[in-house]
Amino acid sequence: MYIRKSTVFSRNRKRHLLALSLVTLSVGGCASGPVRPNGSRHAAVSRPAVSEESLSDELPQPAPDASNESNFRTVGYGQPPQRGEVVLAAQLDLAAPMRLGDEEEDEPKTLGEMLEIEEEDGEQDADDEETADNDSQLSTPNSQLSTGQPVDYFISQALAAHPSIQAARQRVQAELERIPQVTALPDPQFNNTFWPLHDNALQTAGGRIANQMSLQQGVPFPDKLRTKGAIVSREAQIAQAEVERIERKITESVRLSYYEVWYATRAIAIIEESRDLVDDLAKVAEARYRSGGTQQDVLRAQLEIDRLDDQIIQLTKQLEMSQADLAALLQQPVSLLPQATEELGIADAPMQLDALISQAEQCNPSLRGLAAEIQRDRQKQRLACLQQYPDFMVGLNWGIVSDNHDVISPVANGNDNLSITFGTTLPIWREKINAGVREASRRTSSTQQRLEAERDEIYGRLRRLLAQADSLVEQTDIYEDRIIPRTEDTLKLAIADYRGERTDFFTLIETYRELLMFETQLARINASLAGAIAQIDRTVGCPY
After folding, report:
1. H/E element, 203
2. Long-range pairs of 11-14 with CB within 8 A, sequence gap ≥ 24
3. What is the residue range of 163's domain?
4. 141-185, pLDDT tens digit by residue?
5. Does some domain include residue 86?
6. Residues 160, 233 share a domain
7. Are 103 and 8 in contact (CB under 8 A)?
8. What is the DSSP letter of 502?
9. CA dist 470 → 350, 473, 504, 541, 544 (Å)
C-alpha cells in the first residue's frame, strides 16, 4: 500500500511538472504580440557602430531569441567581438503552489486504476529523464556562479544585460531616427478659400469666383538641410561615445568587485590554513603542559584560534558584501553568490606612459565624445552662418470661375485661373544672425577647452595609476621572492626549536603572525594591482 501511494504521488508530481512546462510555454510570448525593444535580458545584443561617413544607417536591433539559451556578444576593447552562449538566469517557477488537497483529487480508487498508473509511469520514465536533463541544463548557468568563474565571464554577462547600457544604446537609435526628420523638406501647405454667401462672392471679368485653392512648398537654402543632418550625426556619435563610456565604467566596476571577492576568498583560505597550523601547535603545547610545561602556552594557542575565528567572520562579511555588489552588476537574483577562481589572472604590467597616452587619445570614450561635440559645434556654427541666406517658397494657385446667368460681367467666359507663385524670406535682421554666429563660435571654443581639460585629467590619472601599478609589482616581487620564503624558513626553525624546548611559545606565535600578515598582505597587493590595471584599462579605453 505504501508503494502504491508513492506511485500516486510520483504521478502527481509529473502532472505538476507537465503543467509547469505548459505554463512556461504559454507565458513565453506570442509571435503576434507587440514588439518591445530590448524587453528581454536574454536578447542577443550587438554593439552599434557610428561612423563619421554614414550615420544614417540603422544600427542592429536586439533580436529576442525564443530558445532558453541566447547568444551574447562578448565585448572586448579594440578587438572584434566573439560570440559566446550565456544564460543570465534560470527559468522561473511559474506554477501555482501546491495545496494540501491537490494530491487527493487524482488519487485512484480501484486496483485497476492503480495498475494503469504504473504502466503510464513506466512509459513516461524516458520523458522524465529528458525533462530532468533539460532542467539541469537550464540551471547550469546559475549554478556556475556558485563555482569559480573568470572575470571575463562576469564582464560578458554584465555588458549583455545591464539596463544602463540598453538605455544608452536606445538613445543612439533615437538620435539616428532624427536624421531623416531634419533632412526632409518642410511639410507643404494647402489652402482653400470659398465664399459661403453667393451674392458676396468675388467677381471678375471672367465670372464669379467660387473657390480658390493654393499649394505651397518651402525650400530651404541649399546646404542647410545637409548641415542639419551632419549636426544630428555628430549627436549620434556623442551618444555612441556615452555607450562606450558606460561599458568601460561597468567593466571596471565588475572587475573591482570581482577582485574584492577574490581577495576575501583568498584571505579566508590563508587564515583557515593558519588555523590548522595553530591547532597543531596547541596540541604540542598541551603535550608539553602534561609533561610539566606551563599552561600559559595552551591558553595562548586557544586565544590565537579565537582571534583567527574572529578574522574569518569579518572576512566572510566582506566577501558577502562584495558578492552582493557583483551580483547587482550582473542583474542576478539575490540568492546567487558569484565566486572567483583560485588564480587571479593578473595581466602583464602596463607599458610606458607615452604609449598609454597615445592609446588614450584614440580610444578614450570621453575624449572621443568631446571631439564629436567639437565637430557638432562647428556644424552648428556653419548653420548659423547659413541663416544670412534666404529660404524659398514655391506655390500653385487655382481659382474656380463660374459664368452663371447672375454674373455681373457681360463677357464672362468661366475660364479657371491658374497661377504660380514664388517667394523668399528676407534675412534683414543682421544683428540676430551675427549673434547666432557668435554664440556657436563661443560654444565651439568652450568644448575645445573642455577637451583640453579632460585630456590633462586623463594624463594625470594615468601617471598616478602607472606609478601605483609599478610600486605594486615591485612589492609583489619582494614578498614572493624574499619576505615570505624567509619568514617560512624562520617559522620552520621556530617550530623545531619549540618542539625541542629551545624557545618559548611567544616567539613561535610572533613568527607565525608575521607569516600570516605577509601572506594576507600579498593577497591584498595582488588584488590592488589587478584593480589598478582595471582602472588603467578604463582610462585608456582599449587594451594596453
Report:
1. strand 203-204
2. 11/106, 11/117, 11/120, 11/121, 12/102, 12/103, 12/106, 14/121, 14/124, 14/128
3. 151-183+222-389+431-540
4. 444 555 578 888 899 988 988 999 999 999 999 999 999 999 999
5. no
6. yes
7. yes
8. S
9. 8, 5, 40, 20, 15
